[in-house]
Write a sequence for this structure.
């Protein structure tokens, strides 16, 4: 994307303030999106994000500047700005004269894209979205929203240690929202499958399946009564159900929280923090996965990081600054939304691994409780681990049987405590796709799990 | 490739469109920001930026096509224009889609004070350090000031179209935010406080820090409430959060797309007769104030709910034309990367006459609700229902008692508007929710989920 001599010069200028380390992140991203309402195209948009950021580390102090002017002059001006901001203007770079001798690292490609979005026609993308929209028009569904997204992010990461990595990341996604109506009854259902793939992700009847799933939830919830409130056992469905682990636990295992002593899991490596039936992984290496990355945004190859094994805390998710501050080795977890953010330790595909149970055997253990079949999003307060998330499709469980549907349930709890309450894990692991927002912006992450049983959790409803 | 300036790029696109006999709108924005974070007495992150880009909206046979670029070289701008024209061919035509040279915008107060231009980087760093120090030292129960920042910036928005409209405005803003983590008897709590201003001198880091610590500490020694239905006083910032979350139901676009529970309710009572709901993009010093909206239409003050009766929705020119009305000036596109939608500006519930203490006295026994979490997931804007993690206090005999934790509050926003029985005089605008404002309100009852 850029010429090495120029990058070398810019990184040296950025170090002139006395920084121990500098890196450059250049991004050229092409986005494409369509929005359909009841099959008609409402919006067609796309564009080019193009910019660069320079980071300088003075100890663990981070200076970051970015610009859209990716010319030599534009980059020099932000390099000078980060040098000045170090507060040591005038210090001569002690690393000696001469340019950087870059080692060009070729990232290991986890997945080979078959049908590249930039080589595909708009009409082809539109046809996929229309198929999803048509498939969702079943039962009482009156309104269908479909959004199609793809983007191709080309990045260059170069640093003052001589690392030079270029990579291309490809993402495709459909988001279907179906609204069912009958008289005064209204309910909606959503399904948003995505992958780190090209249009081959939508092969076969994948668009129809997305539409059918959104409509299924809307129809299932149309006449549902209100969820009960109270502290009861809950069986959570697989795939996107993993959002509970993501919120309750994932965020506070990022060094971004650990390094600030803002995590209940700080200094707990090697200790039992969860029920022994629980093991969990953050994996950035699943080929074609929504949360996978060949290299992180600091140029390090991504890894499979075991977080919890049989209830014992094994690792945190660590970026470069996190490693400097906590002493734990980097895990290829330095991620960010785009060139406008400095990287931070973030999740990739985070999931609970399989256990010995089945969904049925978990339900059998519940006398009265909730089956949270499909989940919505949630959030967590990092310092305390208090979290919440929403049940999009829920059912009452009585004597081990799934009974009537209920709407409007929220699950709230505390990460540290509820991990002890995950008492049963099934063997039907699947992943769901989300956009995770945190200190370094919004990034694609998978959340995943098999069906799990939580012995007790606070359920909020209206009944 | 040589990058054009902001103004050159705009001119280049308008001329290129003229040559192609195309109707387009150019939306350009640029902003520069500085932000500083501190941790344990030292700067931990310092960030500065300049970002600009251009969005093109092309009107081809009644259909809008969009494209944008942050690469302002001539070939990239041409590609952007062509992509917008091609995208329009995919889109279903809208009968009322038009480009126009809208009426002159009103003159509204100074959105770009002199208050930031002369402030040195050193003073910004000092403000961040003071914010962190003051929070850390305010109370021995503060264990960490994990999340805080000082940030400021200025931005310019320019809109021009091939019908001759060409206008722009500049704004500046400064924010400080701090969230101290406090601990006592094994319980951890984290509250926060934010201050927004257009004048550096009016930010008070020490005061903001003390307020954030107060809001964190008051949450300690919390207990779970018993599940049940209780009368509730919703504190002003929490009410603003709920209002902001549901603002979308007032969008004419949502109504016309059959996604709002307010469809068909114009002219009917949708709330208690105490409810007066406004949107005022011309409010002096308002966080979301602007002379015109994102298609260049003049800003105005409108009242959406009058004595509980729904008077109007929020419109852009297209939704208004569809209903035979004039735009209310609420076209919003979240920068050049977005497409035109409808959002409120300074959106607020009018203050009442009673004090918050009087409202608490009236409920006797119940809850004071101070915060709700996870509104991106726990509310349903299609049905009006919500079930949210909340923070608050137990109220006994009108007095605020111990803190509550690990509970949910559930209801339906529209039912809640009907159930507002009293409104306090403490209207405040909340920088955390885009300038939405509310006073504290007393609600007949809400469902609380606890033990």
């Amino acid at each position: 994307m850029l010429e090495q001599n120029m990058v070398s010069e810019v990184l040296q200028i950025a170090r002139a303030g006395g920084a121990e380390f500098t890196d450059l992140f250049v991004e050229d991203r092409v986005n494409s999106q369509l929005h359909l309402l009841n099959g008609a195209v409402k919006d067609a948009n796309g564009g080019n994000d193009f910019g660069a950021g320079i980071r300088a580390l003075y100890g663990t102090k981070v200076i970051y500047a970015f610009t859209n002017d990716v010319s030599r002059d534009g980059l020099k001006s932000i390099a000078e700005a980060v040098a000045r901001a170090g507060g040591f203007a005038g210090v001569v770079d002690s690393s000696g004269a001469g340019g950087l001798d870059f080692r060009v690292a070729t990232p290991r490609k986890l997945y080979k894209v078959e049908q590249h979005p930039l080589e595909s026609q708009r009409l082809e993308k539109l046809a996929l979205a229309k198929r999803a929209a048509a498939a969702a028009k079943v039962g009482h569904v009156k309104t269908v929203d479909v959004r199609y997204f793809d983007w191709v992010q080309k990045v260059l990461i170069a640093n003052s240690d001589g690392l030079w990595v270029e990579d291309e990341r490809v993402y495709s996604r459909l988001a279907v929202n179906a609204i069912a109506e009958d008289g005064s009854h209204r309910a909606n259902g959503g399904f948003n499958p995505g992958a780190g793939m090209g249009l081959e992700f939508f092969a076969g009847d994948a668009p129809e399946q997305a539409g059918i799933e959104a409509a299924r939830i809307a129809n299932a919830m149309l006449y549902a009564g209100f969820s009960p409130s109270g502290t009861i056992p809950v069986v959570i469905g697989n795939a996107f159900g993993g959002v509970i682990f993501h919120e309750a636990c994932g965020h506070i295992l990022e060094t971004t929280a650990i390094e600030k002593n803002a995590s209940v899991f700080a200094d707990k490596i090697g200790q039992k923090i969860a029920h022994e039936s629980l093991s969990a992984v953050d994996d950035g290496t699943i080929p074609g996965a929504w949360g996978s990355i060949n290299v992180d945004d600091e140029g390090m190859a991504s890894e499979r990081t075991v977080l919890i094994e049989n209830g014992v805390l094994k690792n945190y998710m660590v970026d470069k600054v996190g490693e400097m501050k906590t002493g734990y080795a980097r895990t290829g977890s330095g991620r960010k939304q785009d060139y406008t953010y400095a990287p931070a330790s973030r999740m990739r595909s985070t999931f609970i691994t399989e256990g010995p149970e089945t969904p049925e055997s978990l339900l059998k253990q519940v006398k009265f409780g909730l089956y949270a079949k499909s989940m919505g999003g949630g959030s967590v307060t990092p310092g305390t681990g208090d979290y919440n998330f929403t049940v999009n499709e829920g059912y009452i469980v009585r004597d081990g049987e799934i009974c009537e549907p209920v709407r409007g349930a929220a699950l709230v709890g505390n990460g540290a405590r509820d991990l002890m309450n995950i008492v049963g894990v099934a063997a039907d692991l699947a992943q769901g796709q989300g956009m995770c927002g945190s200190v370094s912006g919004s990034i694609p992450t998978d959340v995943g799990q098999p069906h799990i049983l939580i012995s007790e959790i606070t359920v909020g409803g209206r009944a | 490739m040589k990058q054009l300036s902001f103004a050159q790029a705009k001119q280049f696109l308008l001329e290129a469109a003229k040559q192609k006999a195309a109707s387009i709108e150019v939306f350009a924005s640029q902003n520069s920001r500085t932000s500083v974070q501190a941790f344990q007495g030292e700067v931990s992150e310092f960030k500065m930026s300049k970002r600009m880009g251009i969005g093109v909206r092309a009107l081809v046979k009644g259909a809008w096509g969009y494209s944008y670029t942050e690469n302002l070289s001539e070939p990239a701008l041409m590609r952007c224009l062509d992509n917008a024209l091609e995208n329009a061919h995919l889109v279903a035509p809208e009968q009322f889609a038009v480009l126009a040279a809208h009426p002159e915008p009103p003159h509204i107060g100074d959105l770009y004070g002199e208050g930031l231009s002369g402030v040195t980087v050193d003073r910004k760093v000092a403000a961040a350090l003071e914010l962190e120090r003051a929070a850390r030292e305010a109370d021995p129960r503060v264990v960490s000031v994990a999340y805080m920042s000082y940030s400021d910036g200025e931005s310019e928005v320019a809109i021009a179209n091939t019908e001759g409209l060409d206008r722009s405005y500049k704004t500046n803003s400064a924010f400080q935010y701090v969230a101290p983590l406090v601990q006592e008897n094994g319980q951890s709590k984290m509250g926060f406080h934010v201050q927004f201003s257009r004048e550096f001198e009016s930010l008070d880091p020490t005061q903001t820090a003390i307020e954030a610590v107060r809001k964190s500490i008051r949450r300690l020694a919390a207990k779970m409430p018993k599940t049940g239905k209780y009368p509730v006083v919703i504190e002003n910032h929490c009410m603003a959060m709920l209002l902001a979350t549901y603002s979308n139901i007032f969008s004419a676009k949502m109504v016309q797309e059959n996604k709002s529970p307010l469809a068909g309710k114009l002219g009917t009572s949708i709330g208690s007769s105490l409810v007066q709901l406004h949107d005022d993009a011309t409010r002096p010093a308002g966080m979301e104030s602007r002379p015109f909206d994102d298609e260049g239409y003049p800003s105005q003050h409108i009242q959406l709910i009058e004595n509980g009766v729904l008077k109007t929705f929020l419109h852009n020119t297209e939704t208004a034309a569809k209903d035979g009305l004039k735009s209310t000036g609420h076209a919003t596109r979240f920068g050049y990367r977005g497409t035109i939608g409808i959002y409120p500006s300074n959106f607020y519930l009018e203050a009442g006459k009673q004090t918050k203490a009087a409202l608490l006295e009236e409920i006797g026994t119940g809850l004071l609700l101070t915060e709700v979490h996870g509104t991106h997931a726990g509310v349903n804007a299609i049905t009006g229902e919500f079930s949210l993690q909340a923070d608050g206090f137990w109220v006994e005999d009108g007095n605020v008692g111990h803190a509550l934790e690990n509970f949910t509050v559930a209801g339906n926003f529209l039912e809640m508007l009907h159930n507002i029985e009293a409104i306090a005089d403490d209207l405040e605008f909340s920088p955390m929710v885009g300038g939405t404002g509310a006073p504290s309100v007393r609600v007949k009852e809400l469902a609380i989920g606890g033990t």
User: Anything to note?
Assistant: DSSP finds nine helices and 24 strands in chain A.
